[in-house]
From TrEMBL:
Domain named Plant bHLH transcription factor ACT-like: residues: 21-98
GO CC term, one of those recorded: nucleus
Stored Pfam families: bHLH-TF_ACT-like_plant
Annotated keywords: Nucleus
Entries under InterPro entries matching the protein: bHLH-TF_ACT-like_plant, TF_AMS/ICE1/BHLH6-like
Source organism, top-level taxon: Eukaryota
Compartment list: Nucleus
Single GO MF annotation: DNA-binding transcription factor activity
Protein name in the entry: Plant bHLH transcription factor ACT-like domain-containing protein
Gene field: LOC115704602
Species for this entry: Cannabis sativa
C-alpha cells in the first residue's frame, strides 16, 4: 500500500516557505523529496536534524546543493516493529524544519 502526499506552504515575504516537499510511504520507511530552484545554505543540515529528531535513519540519499537545492532521501525508522509514524507526520516535521531554517536565515 502506498500513500502519496504533497504539502506546500507559502509566504509573501519568503520564497523558502514555499518549497515543495513530498513524502511517499514505502514498505519500510519513506521517500522524502525537497526541491528549491535557489541555493539553500544550511538547509540540508536542518532537514537531516529533523530526520534525527523523528527517529529516521537516512538509508539512501541524493543531494544537490550547488545552484539549486534538491534532496531525495529514503528514511527508515530506528525502532523495530510496527511503524508509529505516517507520511503526514514526516511532511509536517520537514516543513517545520524548513520554516525554522528560513526564519534563522532571514535573521542572519
Amino acid at each position: 500500500m502506498e500513500n502519496n502526499a504533497q504539502i506546500t506552504s507559502s509566504s509573501d515575504h519568503d520564497d523558502f516557505n514555499a518549497l515543495p516537499v513530498s513524502v511517499k510511504t514505502l514498505d519500510k520507511g519513506f521517500m522524502i523529496n525537497v526541491l528549491s530552484e535557489k541555493s539553500c545554505p544550511g538547509l540540508l543540515v536542518a532537514v537531516l536534524e529533523a530526520f534525527e529528531d523523528m527517529g529516521l535513519n537516512v538509508l539512501e540519499a541524493r543531494v544537490s546543493c550547488a545552484d539549486s537545492f534538491h534532496l531525495q532521501a529514503v528514511g527508515g525508522e530506528n525502532v523495530e516493529g510496527e511503524s508509529s509514524m505516517d507520511a503526514e507526520a514526516v511532511k509536517q516535521a520537514v516543513m517545520m524544519s524548513i520554516k525554522n531554517w528560513s526564519e534563522t536565515t532571514e535573521n542572519d
